[in-house]
Amino acid sequence: MMVSSPFGGGRAPQGLPRLPTPPTGWPIGSYATYGEAQQAVDFLAESEFSVSDVTIVGVDLMLVERVIGRLSWGRVLGTGAVSGAWFGLFAGLLLGLFVNQGFALQLLTGLVLGVLSGLMFAAIGYSMSRGRRDFSSASQLVAGRYDVLCQPRSAEQARELLAKLALKPPSVNP
Questions:
Q1: Can you list the positions of beta strands (E) in the chain?
Q2: Boundaries of each General stress protein 17M-like domain copy (predicted)?
């Protein structure tokens, strides 16, 4: 998988375009969920089909933000202290490895400074929002449907295989 950057870093895997490019190919299936589209491609792979010709395309994209909970000063400061503690432990560990004076003292110093800086940055960030966003959430990019495309040279063969998948009875999971 390639992560793109506006500065052009990294290399694209063999045969994939380097710049954002619309997908090509003929539609061989359309599915309501990504899991169904993935199952179709898995079925093609299990059937010894060349899946390098296949692309899954999310259509009708939407950003879904799921509200997780209400934010309060206690929750914000607690989260800031915990994240600061992890960073402080890491910094203290590094300091303890390279400084010859008291490994435990370096670790404890890093922990305390990390908690304090985490509290400070969390408090500053939350106070600057002035109550405009008193909830936490998680965002997810979701498609309305998922089309499976295939290069024309093997699209008919892929359609025939996926027709067999559609005829299979659904598996029962205990």
A1: 26-31, 54-70, 135-150
A2: 28-110
